[in-house]
Design brief:
214 residues, single chain, Rna Polymerase Sigma Factor, Chain: A
Length: 214
């Protein structure tokens, strides 16, 4: 037992995929529970790696992480073209982060560090995946869009974005290099992501209109 969980040996990825194939057809509850039980180790791993320094009961965090894992199992689809463990990790991190933000907000302790967006957290999680983030999310076309976007930034923002996206540095590592707080790096990344997202949406809308004209 660990944080109130019985830890089972994780299933190989190919077995997990077979389980999901069957689950999509049969909707078998016992199969769903099997996937959940064999991935509870992910919750412990994330608490130890990302949330261990938080001053909250680890059993509470584990319970919240379990809800994130259950959501991951219910929402995951094989056509996402990403490992389930990666997708589940994102959902677990998001559930615990949202819980901590709510707790700190209720206590009047919400800080800039707590306001780091899901986009940043998800990208960091993806970058830890053994298959590599590019294959999962950032296809060549999108990476080229990011490069073009970064090229037009001022030196400081360009440096931060390049270190994060293309040199695989964590936020805290970037902060050390720039001699600033991690929350400042997160804020810069967040603002740049918002601008990039808006530019991509405008481009997509323009392309859709051109297709209609043709």
């Amino acid at each position: 037992m660990y944080f109130g969980f019985a830890i089972l040996k994780p299933l190989p990825e190919e077995v997990v995929r077979e389980y999901f194939k069957k689950l999509e057809i049969t909707h078998d509850e016992s199969l769903r529970e099997e996937i959940i039980l064999h991935n509870t180790a992910l919750i412990i791993e994330r608490i130890n790696k990302r949330f261990f320094n938080d001053l909250y009961d680890k059993k509470d965090l584990a319970s919240v992480g379990l809800l994130g894992l259950i959501r991951a199992v219910d929402a995951y689809r094989l056509d996402k073209n990403v490992r389930f463990s990666t997708y589940a990790t994102i959902c677990i991190d998001r559930a615990i982060s949202n819980y901590l933000i709510k707790c700190k907000n209720d206590m009047g302790l919400l800080s800039m560090e707590s306001l780091i967006t899901d986009d940043i957290m998800v990208l960091e999680t993806i970058k830890d995946d053994k298959e590599g983030p590019e294959e999962c999310y950032l296809n060549k076309e999108l990476r080229e869009e990011i490069r073009n976007f970064i090229a037009n930034l001022d030196d400081l923002n360009k440096n931060i974005m390049e270190m994060f996206y293309f040199k695989n540095l964590k936020q805290r590592e970037i902060a050390v290099k720039l001699n600033c707080k991690r929350s400042y790096v997160a804020m810069r990344l967040r603002k740049n992501l918002e601008v990039l997202r808006n530019e991509l949406e405008q481009k997509n809308n323009k392309e859709q209109k051109l297709k209609l004209i043709k």
